[in-house]
Amino acid sequence: MEIRGYFKDLKVPPKKLRFFLEEIKKLSPNEALDYLYYSKKKPAQFFYKAIASVIASAKNTFKIDANLLKFKLLTVEEGRTLKRAKPGGRGAAKPIKRHFAHIKIILEAETPKKENKTTEKVAIKKIAKKKVVKKVSNK
After folding, report:
1. CA–CA separation, 42 vs 58, rounded Å?
2. What is the model's pTM?
């Protein structure tokens, strides 16, 4: 099962978000939240809110435990660019570009590991044999 989140027009350049990307991908979503919570940099706040939102969505809508989630996709995309100008020397206009970013998160739910089915089948066969032996011996 996949849980998706797409966060658009974050007022931070994508280049600054990509510094955190490789570190976060290695961690599970819960560990990533802990890592980002204690980071002092501004882009960490955007990632923290985005990941926390997707985890909350998984808990509320799909009733999935947060410990079973892992990152399937985590990307930072470039958003729009605002072009502005700042007055410069001798009446010149100096250009300023304000970059925006998009974060795309897809979480995947791992299925909890179950016991081997073969051991269950063997146990069921042993119980069935005992019942058959008891029924035959009673006659």
Report:
1. 25
2. 0.77
Would 17 be classed as within a structural domain? yes
Q: Above pLDDT 90, what percent of the chain?
A: 78
The answer to whether 74 touches 104, Cβ cutoff 8 Å, is yes
Tell me if 52 is assigned to some domain: yes
pLDDT of residue 120 exceeding 70 = no
Rounded to 5°, the CA angle 57-59-64 comes to 125
The CATH number linked to 87 is 3.90.470.10
Residue 9 is encoded by which pair of tokens?
A: 């027009």
The tokens describing 35, both together, are 């890592």
Report residue 100 as tokens. Answer: 């925006």
74-90 b/e (C-beta count within 10 Å ≥ 16 → b): bebeebeeeeeeeeeee
Q: How confident is the model at residue 132 (pLDDT cuts 50, 70, 90)?
A: low
Residue 91 zone, left/alpha/beta (φ > 0; ψ -120 to 50; rest): left
Q: Total domain count for the chain?
A: 1
Residue 92: both structure tokens together: 């010149």
